[in-house]
Amino acid sequence: MRQKAVFFHAGCPVCVAAEQQVAEAIDRARFEVEVVHLGEASARIAEARAAGVISVPALVLHEQVFHINFGAALSDLG
Amino acid sequence: MRQKAVFFHAGCPVCVAAEQQVAEAIDRARFEVEVVHLGEASARIAEARAAGVISVPALVLHEQVFHINFGAALSDLG
């Protein structure tokens, strides 16, 4: 069974680069990658916060958060 | 042909988590992932700096640097 990976972003240029390169590089045979745009899906900001996301872009793998560069603070999104 | 990805780290706990999870999740069918421990291979610090690495752990993909969380500043390594 594939593991779940969630990539949270906010559509900023730093986020787009990370999505197109880091998230894209993940092995789809082993991981189901969900991409969540918090600017459009603001209802999921609470989920991101609960997962430990402080800024975007961020990748949540195995319930651990990996902040990738810095696009925007979660607190600025809502 | 597989593309090259380089994961620079310094053996710190933040680095190890990122290596075991983010670097490990990369699709080996498409990417050749080289892991460089800058604490042991200090000769490669200049290469990391030239690639734009400011802190480790960092992943260099398609000549772009993605800093993952924060383990140590490159300037503290040498």
From TrEMBL, chains A, B:
It comes from the Bacteria. SUPFAM superfamilies: Thioredoxin-like. InterPro entries: Thioredoxin-like_fold, Thioredoxin-like_sf. This is Uncharacterized protein. It comes from Lysobacter enzymogenes. The lineage of its organism: Bacteria, Pseudomonadati, Pseudomonadota, Gammaproteobacteria, Lysobacterales.
